[in-house]
């Protein structure tokens, strides 16, 4: 099971687009102060994991995620102007400005949304998988969450149910080694014992694998195999995808009027571990995959540069379109309480 | 046509009717295929099979989340949380997920799920199996909250809940489960958000929830013998609340008592009292009286539980207070 050259170039393109999108979110704090309030959480560093996973599903499949959610809809084909307008709280946003950065949803493309409460989208993804099972169309659910979420009861309850009912779901745990400012070995019994977090799968009698989430080919192959199992009615898989988030957990939190910004990564600010962070930067999956494609003769440098330039143009249009988007009407604040 | 059913049988009958009509309706919860402790889902697995009547693990957070996710994917889950006391374990899914998905997605997602649960004391079940926690649920925008007081309403309100576009919580009452009354056959939906006037009266309005409706009617019967005519209103749906019916009544009686089994402190009666005094301040001749349980957990031993539990006597006393008479 492997992707052809064209698919790999498309994976690279999507990784670049996600990276550029996240860079523009970050730059917004400096270039357009006050335009983003509240919380944003960026996917930079997890692009290979996101893109490799979503390359393994087909239309009709569904995705649920956490509040660190900008990458998935981009990979599913959601319009980036609508996404950025949502993050800016504009009425042309994907969710009309009601949800913001943490609550993107695009059910038409299979993106069932997120939970801002850690781990709590996992049961819902499990329920979507039950719906897929009962409909017998062979659809599968990809459920993304972080390492921190595996400390929630909802994670354990859901894995038990998914395995017991043989639901068509793949649990993709993006282990970025940090829960905000706490390192995984400080809060996870497996990690503290030197074992992978995928060990947890054993407790629920499902396959558990730990992979290099910085390599989209590896992620694709692993998730595609898990998706095949799920489609065949053989039940769930837990994929622990090792990634490193290249930004801090989120932007700073400050009272209105105080400019927000992205602080340095917690490895530096909390642990003073500059070497760890510098090593993570050297392993950045976007240039790494570019290098692999160029070295392998799949992509020449000029075409790679063109892909980067196209992504930059797209995201500039997204910024322009989002900034030009109207603020919602105050009278609309009370809509959508009840369906 | 009607048939005489218990409240519990009215529920299983209504669910079966909905499952026959709509293949997307399914039931999940703990011990549901055996009928649950109160037989409210008895007989369903025999007719509809284990794929649509699912015994879940004891995992309230996950099963509520499964219901939310299945509803977002187009199914119509009817989830049972066996005791309302256990809803604490499912509250994130209910409060942060089910109630907000439609809103946060700008109307893209809908969560057409029914969460059935039951509360109330009177079965010597102690502090963790007897509570009335509906006020918590009424405080969450996005949830519809229903409290049926009899078999016919248990059927009709549930039928409406199962076709509602968003999440509905139906809080049943364990003491009412085995009381019988005529129920329409087939079950007809009762629109959510419409109160029922259970007894007409000119002197005092009593708004009573769930089991307290029967208690209010008993008190009204006693008071009628003393020449006091009490109007008893059963809101049936707490959210949305049919305030118009209550206010129209208070404009005639000029006196209001609100009665529920939940602790009075922070109870739903406070919301009704505040809403009525605002809408009909000039019509009130006495302060609104609230009947509810004392602000303490529920004791086990029969003499203690009986002393704790509010009922007809407390309602009668509150009615007398609004009339300026010393309760006997």
From TrEMBL, chain A:
UniProt xrefs under CDD domains: TPP_E1_PDC_ADC_BCADC (cd02000)
Keywords attached to this entry: Oxidoreductase, Pyruvate, Thiamine pyrophosphate
Gene3D superfamilies linked to this entry: 3.40.50.970
Superkingdom of this protein's organism: Bacteria
GO biological process: pyruvate decarboxylation to acetyl-CoA
Cofactors, names only: thiamine diphosphate
Molecular functions per Gene Ontology: magnesium ion binding; pyruvate dehydrogenase (acetyl-transferring) activity
Domain (Dehydrogenase E1 component): residue spans on this chain: 14-330
Enzyme Commission code: 1.2.4.1
Protein name: Pyruvate dehydrogenase (Acetyl-transferring)
From TrEMBL, chain B:
Cofactor: thiamine diphosphate
A molecular-function term among this protein's GO annotations: magnesium ion binding
SMART domains per UniProt: Transket_pyr
Pfam family, one: Transket_pyr
Domain of life where this protein originates: Bacteria
Keyword Oxidoreductase: yes
InterPro entries, per the entry: THDP-binding (IPR029061), Transketo_C/PFOR_II (IPR009014), Transketolase-like_Pyr-bd (IPR005475), Transketolase_C (IPR033248)
EC number(s) per entry: 1.2.4.1
SUPFAM superfamilies attached to this UniProt entry: Thiamin diphosphate-binding fold (THDP-binding), TK C-terminal domain-like
Sequence ranges assigned to domain Transketolase-like pyrimidine-binding in this UniProt record: 5-179
Keyword Oxidoreductase: yes
Keyword annotations from UniProtKB, A to Z: Oxidoreductase, Pyruvate, Thiamine pyrophosphate
Protein name per Swiss-Prot or TrEMBL: Pyruvate dehydrogenase (Acetyl-transferring)
Organism: Pseudonocardia dioxanivorans (strain ATCC 55486 / DSM 44775 / JCM 13855 / CB1190)
């Amino acid at each position: 099971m492997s992707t052809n050259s064209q698919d790999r170039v498309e994976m690279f393109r999507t990784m670049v687009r996600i990276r550029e999108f996240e860079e523009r979110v970050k730059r917004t704090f400096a270039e357009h102060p006050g335009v983003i309030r509240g919380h944003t959480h960026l996917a930079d560093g997890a692009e290979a994991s996101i893109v490799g996973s979503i390359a393994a599903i087909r239309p009709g499949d569904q995705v649920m995620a956490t509040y660190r959610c900008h990458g998935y809809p981009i990979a599913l084909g959601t319009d980036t102007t609508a996404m950025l307008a949502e993050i800016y709280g504009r009425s042309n946003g994907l969710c009309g400005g009601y949800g913001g950065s943490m609550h993107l949803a695009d059910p038409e493309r299979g993106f069932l949304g997120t939970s801002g409460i850690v781990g709590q989208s996992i049961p819902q993804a499990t329920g979507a998988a039950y719906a897929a099972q009962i409909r017998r169309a062979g659809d599968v659910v990809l459920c993304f969450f972080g390492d921190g979420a595996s400390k929630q009861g909802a994670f354990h309850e859901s894995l038990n149910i998914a395995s017991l009912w043989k639901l068509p779901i793949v649990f993709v745990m993006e282990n970025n080694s940090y829960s905000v400012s706490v390192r995984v070995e400080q809060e996870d019994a497996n990690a503290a014992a030197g074992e992978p977090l995928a060990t947890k799968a054993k407790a629920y009698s499902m396959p558990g694998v730990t992979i290099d989430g910085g390599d989209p080919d590896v992620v694709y192959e692993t998730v595609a195999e898990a998706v095949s199992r799920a489609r065949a009615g053989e039940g769930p898989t837990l994929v622990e995808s090792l990634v490193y988030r290249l930004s801090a957990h989120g932007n700073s939190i400050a009272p209105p009027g105080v400019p927000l910004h992205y602080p340095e990564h917690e490895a530096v600010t909390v642990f003073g571990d500059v070497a760890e962070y510098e090593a993570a930067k050297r392993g950045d999956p976007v240039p790494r995959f570019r290098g692999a494609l160029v070295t392998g003769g799949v992509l020449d440098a000029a075409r790679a540069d063109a892909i980067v330039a196209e992504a930059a143009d797209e995201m500039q249009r997204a910024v322009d379109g989002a900034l030009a988007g109207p603020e919602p009407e105050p009278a609309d604040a009370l809509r959508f309480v009840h369906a | 046509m009607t048939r005489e059913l218990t409240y519990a049988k009215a529920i299983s009958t209504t669910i079966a009717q909905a499952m026959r009509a709509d293949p997307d309706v399914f039931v999940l919860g703990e011990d549901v295929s055996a009928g649950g402790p109160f037989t409210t889902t008895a007989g369903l697995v025999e007719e509809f099979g284990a794929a649509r009547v699912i015994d879940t693990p004891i995992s309230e957070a996950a099963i509520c989340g499964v219901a939310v996710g299945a509803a977002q994917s187009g199914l119509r889950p009817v989830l049972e949380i066996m005791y309302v006391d256990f809803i604490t374990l499912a509250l994130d899914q209910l409060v942060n997920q089910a109630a907000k998905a439609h809103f946060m997605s700008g109307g893209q997602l809908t969560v057409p799920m029914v969460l059935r649960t039951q509360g109330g004391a009177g079965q010597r079940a102690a502090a963790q199996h007897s509570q009335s926690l509906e006020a918590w649920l009424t405080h969450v925008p996005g949830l519809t909250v229903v409290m049926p007081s009899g078999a016919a309403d248990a059927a009709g309100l549930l039928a409406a809940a199962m076709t509602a576009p968003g999440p509905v919580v139906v809080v049943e009452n364990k003491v009412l489960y085995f009381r019988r009354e005529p129920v329409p056959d087939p079950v007809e939906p009762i629109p959510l958000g419409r109160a029922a006037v259970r007894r007409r009266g000119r002197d005092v309005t009593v708004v009573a929830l769930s089991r307290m409706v029967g208690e209010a009617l008993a008190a009204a019967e006693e008071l009628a013998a003393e020449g006091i005519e009490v109007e008893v209103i059963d809101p049936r749906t707490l959210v949305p609340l049919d305030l118009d019916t209550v206010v129209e009544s208070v404009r005639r009686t000029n006196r209001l008592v609100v009665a529920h089994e939940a602790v009075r402190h922070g109870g739903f009666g406070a919301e009704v009292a505040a809403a009525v005094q605002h809408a009909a301040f000039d019509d009130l001749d006495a302060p609104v009286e609230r009947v509810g349980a004392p602000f303490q957990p529920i004791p086990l031993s029969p003499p203690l539980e009986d002393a704790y539990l509010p009922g007809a006597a407390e309602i009668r006393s509150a009615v007398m207070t609004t009339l300026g008479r010393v309760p006997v």
